[in-house]
Amino acid sequence: MALKLTSRFRRLLQRPGSIDLGPYEKLTTAVGEAGESSKGLTDEELTEVVAEMRTEGGLDEDGLIEFLALAREAGERALGERAFDGQIVGALALLQGRVVEMATGEGKTLAGAFAAAGYAIGGRKVHVLAVNDYLAERDAEWMEPLYKLLGVTVSHVGQASTPEERRAAYQAEVCYAPVSEVGFDVLRDRLVADVADRVSAEPDVALVDEADSVLIDEARVPLVLAGATRSEELDDDVVQLVRTLRAGVDYEIDGDGRSVALTDKGTDTVEEHLGGIDLYDDANLDKMTQVNVALHAEVLLRRDVDYLVRDGKVHLINNSRGRIAKLQRWPDGLQAAVEAKEAVPVSESGEVLDSITVQALIKRYPKLCGMTGTAVVVGEQLQEFYDVEVAVVPPNKPNIRIDEADRLYLTVDQKNKALVAHIKEVHETGRPILIGTHSVEESEQLSDQLEAADVPHVVLNAKNDAEEAAIVAEAGVPETVTVSTQMAGRGTDIRLGGRDGSNGRERAAELGGLYVVGTGLHASRRLDDQLRGRAGRQGDPGGSVFFASLADELVTRYSITSGLRPSPDKEGRLTDRKAIGTLEHAQRVADGANAELLRTTWSYSRLTEQQRAIVLDTREKVLVSDLAAEKLAAASKERWDELVEAHDESVVKDAARRIALHHLDRRWTDHVAYLADLREGIHLRSLAGGIVHQKPIDEFNKLAIESFRTLVDDAWTDAAESLAGAEIGESGLDEEKTGVPRPTATWTYLVNDNPFGTEADRILGRLRNAVKGDELVTVEDDTPVELDEDDLPEELRDLDEDELADELPEELREADEDEDEKRK
């Protein structure tokens, strides 16, 4: 009962999962008192004192106080920065396994370095997990003088790091690395045929920078390692044919814009142009697949929104950051279809070798902590998925940023017109402006509009991400207008007056500080808060405002506007509570839908992770012992004796090991492919069942267990068969001739782990389709739109209001309950 009341109290304060900082604040006071004794130490003496504190059991309370006092002194000497009390509180919370929320500009990087060094002094190895290469390298090099003075080794891993560099970097006590690189190193290490080829180290402590982005946003996209197989070009006649098809006539797009399908007329047209074939005949399955992926690429994937074309290659865009998703591509021929659409060389196709979710990757670490500027909003999810609590550290100076109310318009055109006019008006005062857009396409369209309005500006998007940090760092200079995609440049401090504050800081402050303008609300209030947080650092003045419209994707996808009678002013602006409530409602539903997607990813991966652990355990035994030799010698004694007689026994043992590893990996790869197909089929069952449906996860688990039951035994059987025809030469096993080749090139796939959308998406789609007329009611038309029972999906018709509410997903029920409360 006490726990439940505490949870409700935190929810009332809008701080679910947050903890009391009182104990940390008391320790911080003690750290300040202990700091006086460290001032008289030389650098060498300080390093020596820290070395004497080293222990294998972690620092006790007195040890933490003494260490942080020394670390604060070391930070001032090595970096010229003396940590605020808030940074000491943050470091203490990190050392206790919390996710720390600290506002932008409050010094998370230094607090994280203190904590990482504290873990190292306590005998632990730390991976500081960042969101990208730039931040990992920057922070490692920035904090290196501090670590050196404390006697702690530090390194970093990046996309360009060689296997030798990675292996050495992971041996350091503190290693900074993008979470994706750590994940891919883990996946690659699972495929090695020799222990010496491994690069990663045993996981110990994960300190996650930008924790909400890594643990929540990135977690919806599993990390997938694929191996090259062949080139997969589309027939040019299919590509050209698809371009001639007409929307609504030859093909239809579903209500959520997630899938596209040929109509009967479209099918007839395609079959006629392809020589009168029957697309649905088994003999034409390949051609049907090509038509489908070409249609998907042509209609649903948008250049400068979903991908960029640069240097003759297609680059996917990471939707959560608006940046290029390096080394990522679409699976199942879709990559080739987009490449054909853009007339660039088609890259190799491949098959999934293995995958890992961010949750599973993080769960490998016995200790988890993290830091970010926005953690409270996802506090419950952090508890649910990672079992960590949030510590909210107050700012060193009060936040005086002025956050204006959202400005809502009827149409996108009216919004954009008002947006540009407002930016021009503010710019004429000289106040620095940072504009956050949702996509590369939107940033470039806004750039054109600003240019037409004679507003000088700089554009920061995925096309010039190499310079993003330098551009963002100067966004606080007077007269500057910076247009960015979402959170491009996140992690870079924006100081008034530029990077060193010398370029008009006082004038920028007098003008009201940095002014953040959002071109639309994000799917999560947390993302809006991240953008707002770029202004008002360290007690600086600042301001923010968001423009939105009822035609924005957020509203059209996650809310139902039929029946709404908006009354805009002559500029199209809406101020009535119902219209604004629709916008807020859509954002809450979107937040819930994304939470469900993460929950779905996790629920479906649990069994897979358990099965993977069994395979990895067997694989490890094969890799480090003579298990393969023992098994295969017993299974094929005559062939084994024959090979040992012809070759040195150590060579035959090595061949047996490689053969066994190949077949374990091969069987696992096939199982992963089966599970992927199974996931798709399971969701089709869910769709077919309507709102009241069987639990697809139960059926998935049953079939997955059945498929896995004999996997390891089958791998040993395959290995014995391969041994019978093994080709062994002077250099050992000839893997190609034996039929057990290792994968060549590898890359990652960008996977949507819920291809049919969330349950909320599906029900919203059904309700939208049920409403007669899907356009907003115009100002002139004041006739109420009523929903007749015949317009509802069949399974909803006989339900009263309470029963209907019970059938809605949780996030929709909560949203409706919130609306009811507001009306009261």
TrEMBL record:
Domain of life: Bacteria
Cell location: Cell membrane; Cytoplasm; Membrane
The Helicase C-terminal domain, residue ranges: 404-580
Classification via InterPro entries: Helicase_ATP-bd (IPR014001), Helicase_C-like (IPR001650), P-loop_NTPase (IPR027417), SecA (IPR000185), SecA_Actinobact-type (IPR026389), SecA_CS (IPR020937), SecA_DEAD (IPR011115), SecA_motor_DEAD (IPR014018)
Major site of localization recorded for this protein: membrane
Residues annotated as domain Helicase ATP-binding: 89-248
Ranges where the SecA family profile domain occurs: 6-576
UniProt keywords, alphabetically: ATP-binding, Cell membrane, Cytoplasm, Membrane, Nucleotide-binding, Protein transport, Translocase, Translocation, Transport
Annotated residues for binding of ATP: Q87, G105, E106, G107, K108, T109, D493
EC number: 7.4.2.8
One Pfam family hit: SecA_SW
Catalytic reactions on record: ATP + H2O + cellular proteinSide 1 = ADP + phosphate + cellular proteinSide 2
Keyword Ribosomal protein: no
Matching SUPFAM superfamilies: Helical scaffold and wing domains of SecA, P-loop containing nucleoside triphosphate hydrolases, Pre-protein crosslinking domain of SecA
Family: Belongs to the SecA family.
Subunit composition and interactions: Monomer and homodimer. Part of the essential Sec protein translocation apparatus which comprises SecA, SecYEG and auxiliary proteins SecDF. Other proteins may also be involved.
Purpose: Part of the Sec protein translocase complex. Interacts with the SecYEG preprotein conducting channel. Has a central role in coupling the hydrolysis of ATP to the transfer of proteins into and across the cell membrane, serving as an ATP-driven molecular motor driving the stepwise translocation of polypeptide chains across the membrane.
Protein name in the entry: Protein translocase subunit SecA
Gene that specifies this protein: secA2
